[in-house]
Write a structure and sequence with these properties.
The complex is a heterodimer of chains A (137) and B (132). With 137 residues, chain A is an all-alpha fold. Chain A has a single domain, classed as Up-down Bundle (3 helical TM bundles of succinate and fumarate reductases), CATH 1.20.1300.10. Chain A is built from four helices and two strands. In chain A, strand 1 and strand 2 form a beta hairpin. The longest helix of chain A is centred in the middle third of the chain and has 28 residues. Chain A is flat. Chain B is mainly alpha-helical and 132 residues long. Chain B has one domain: Fumarate reductase/succinate dehydrogenase, transmembrane subunit (3 helical TM bundles of succinate and fumarate reductases). Classes of the chains: A mainly alpha (137), B mainly alpha (132).
Chain lengths: 137, 132
């Protein structure tokens, strides 16, 4: 939309420009954990790319194949697991806020919805963990 | 209806798509990633259990299965659409408002698309598809 004729734009120097101080997120525990939640994306992305490298390595043939196994990789995985669990717990807990369903005309309590999400997570983890070990025999 | 209001009332299909991918990526990452890190990143390398990717034979057999290929594509590629959004807003929160701009969106979501294409390429070129 254009401004009416004759009305000048306010000079930029007169506008109040407020910016967050760079360290706002370490001032409060709550803010810190909010940022940590956003940060979880980075280690998980790196771990997945490492995993993709391992899939690619399988194409090198039986003699050249070497899966990740260094102490450094295990340590990195431990750190990533902590971030992954933090993402899972915070993200699946959100379902109670987002999902609203009714059963027999009554709203399903959000705790039950969150519980179902965690149940799904547990079931999927057991199934996949079992498959990864079963096919490794 | 003016041109501006017609545009304003147009369904935001792009928003719908990227938000859908963000949500799906979040669910996939939450439900599937921890067990892979635990079993393949910790228990397997430590030798506590026999894991499929520790040995070439078992790993290549599994990788040939088309259902496994599809699963790995979902597991690896879809979370990147979630990560792209998360990292973009991490930058915004750290004082980089430019991460909200359209070029930044093209770069971040473009990276997620690139990871998807690379994953497809890796999965199709590593092990020949077999149903055995």
């Amino acid at each position: 939309m254009s401004l009416p004729a004759g009305e000048a734009r306010p000079a930029l120097s007169n506008t109040y420009r407020w910016s967050m101080p760079a360290n706002w997120w370490i001032r409060k525990r709550h803010y810190f954990f909010y940022m940590l939640r956003e940060f979880t994306a980075l280690p998980l992305a790196v771990w997945l790319l490492w995993f993709l490298v391992e899939i690619k390595r399988a194409g090198d043939g039986p003699a050249a194949y070497a899966p990740h196994g260094s102490a450094l990789f295990v340590a990195f995985s431990v750190v990533c697991l902590a971030f992954a669990l933090y993402h899972s717990i915070t993200f699946l807990s959100l379902a109670g806020v987002i999902i609203h369903v009714k059963f027999l005309g009554r709203p399903v309590p959000s705790r039950l919805i969150v519980l179902s999400q965690f149940g799904l997570w547990a079931a999927a983890s057991i199934l996949i963990g079992f498959a990864l070990i079963w096919f490794g025999r | 209806m003016t041109e501006a209001s017609r545009l304003a009332h147009r369904p935001a299909l792009a928003h719908l798509f990227w938000w859908f991918m963000f949500a799906q990526g979040g669910v996939i990452a939450a439900v599937l990633i921890p067990v892979h890190i635990l079993v393949q990143g910790i228990l397997g390398p430590l030798g506590w259990v026999n894991v499929v990717d520790r040995h070439y034979d078992t790993w290549i057999n599994l990788l040939g299965n088309p259902i496994v290929k599809l699963y790995l594509l979902v597991l690896i590629a879809v979370p990147f659409f979630h990560f792209a959004h998360r990292v973009r807003y991490l930058l915004v929160d750290l004082g980089v408002p430019a991460a909200r701009s359209t070029p930044a969106q093209v770069v971040f979501y473009g990276a997620a698309v690139l990871v998807t294409l690379i994953t497809i390429w890796v999965l199709l070129t590593t092990a020949p598809i077999s149903l055995g």
